Amino acid sequence: MNRRALLRAATAAGTALAIGPVATLAHADAGFPAKPIRLIVPFPPGGGTDILSRLIANELATATGWTVVPDNRGGAGGTIGLAEAARAKPTGYDIVMGQKDNMIVAPWLYPNLSYDPNKDFAAVAHVAYTPVVIVTRSESPYKTLDDVVKAARKSPDSVTYGSPGNGTTIHLAGEQFKNAAKVQIRHVPYKGSNAAMMDVMAGNVDLMVSSVPSAIGQLKSGKLRALAVTSARRSSVLPDTPTVAELGFGKDFDVSTWYGLFAPAGTPADIVTRINAEVNKLLAKPEVQAAIQAQGAEYKAMSPQQFAAQVADELPKWKAIVQASGARIE
Where does the secretion signal sit in this chain (predicted)? Predict the structure, then answer.
């Protein structure tokens, strides 16, 4: 990828994702959709992205009569599915559930990524976001995040934290916390959340930085203790857990991951607008809100322009975060 070109695109008007590409095709077929819509899920079945994608597909079908077919195309941290979506014809019949890891972090993590988030996609609809939670085992001597910081300052690198993998948003949230608290805590990467979860509960690592959906079951069972969430405000699923910023570690500390629908660049503006409107109607329904929150996520509707602006704003910011972490995937 041409990184200079990517940065120039990122600093351009945020609406470029939603408006610039769609200008190449004037109008959609008035009968849209006349056939099934494929929703590419860039992760295997059963994970958080898959569950959320199927929820949206089923709810859209129920509300509109459309046929929306989830198609799992996992691999390489979600980048394989995103690459397939970028190559699809811009007709509105191929959309993808993207997220921060593969749209914002991946361009700075993978040296030969085949897609450009700003040029190859039209932002369609933001669906949800989820904070990251810092947890420890229930028997841990660390009762608060301040306990962790004091121990790390007394003996740098003596405290360890696990994550689902090197270069994930969750790993980078841990690195951001270390920077904000000015401490040295040793990162231990795992191949997925389950292995890291088992080791923190066994006491093999002191902490785990996790998505809320991955940790919520063990938190509710009492096997884990939540020390803080990394979002700007508390999670509705963990209302008694303070934010990192509340605890005084970084005034504007806010690290969360998000999920949203994208279409190939050039998809007609009226199709983008129509899908966005239907998804936003779903997000206004209490039963859909409850289903999203049951997964440890928070629903949030946006216009295509607002979602595009968020992507364009975050992309260059995360370059510095990835570079500071030293993470890289060949």
Answer: 1-28
